[in-house]
Amino acid sequence: AGICGTCGVKANQKPILACKTAIKDLGEEVLVEPLDSMHPVKDLVVEHGTLIERIKKLKVWYEPLQESLQRLEINPFLLKSFDCIACGLCDSSCPIFVGNSDFGGPMAFSRAYKLLQDRRHSKAEERLLLLKDAHINLCTHCKNCSLICPMGVMPEMLIKLEEVELLKRGMHSQGGVADFGFF
Ligand code: SF4
Ligand code: SF4
Fold this sequence. Notes:
Blueprint: E1 8-11, E2 14-17, E3 32-33, E4 40-42, E5 45-46, H1 49-57, H2 76-83, H3 89-92, H4 106-117, H5 124-133, H6 144-148, H7 155-168
Antiparallel strand pairs: 1-2, 1-3, 4-5
The chain binds iron/sulfur cluster (2 copies).
């Protein structure tokens, strides 16, 4: 059903969610392996601790609201951020995530977008600093993450939007800015 994000594996070299993939679509021979970039525990089971650590670094969680509830303005990009099921397929396919523990990674950046956009918490500046500290500028915009995401979250697009917010406030470091051809 593509809900819990725990059945990520590589099938014929490509990261997939096993529950959303029909075996008939994989060809005559199927090579199934554990995901890259995460420590294998046993057989196809990988350690998800690496992903959890990045989420902790970026503080990607909701805190109780101090004020009375207000309506959250929804836009299509925000919905994409909510659609992330934390499967980690994007991180496993990101060339920067591998071997760079300081880089937040496409999963954490995608999930952070909804918090950045949530004006009810009024912590945009603090959230942007966390993105900067997680070296969002190292993203090369190769789009591997967007191509691999089984939920259509398009992490690379959300990273671009976060970088735009950083640029607007003069907080962006040199690195990923050169790839802003999209805008
Ligand atoms: S676009 Fe950025 S975050 Fe996505 S896979 Fe490429 S380098 Fe990693
Ligand atoms: S952005 Fe997509 S691939 Fe990455 S963790 Fe979320 S659902 Fe999985």
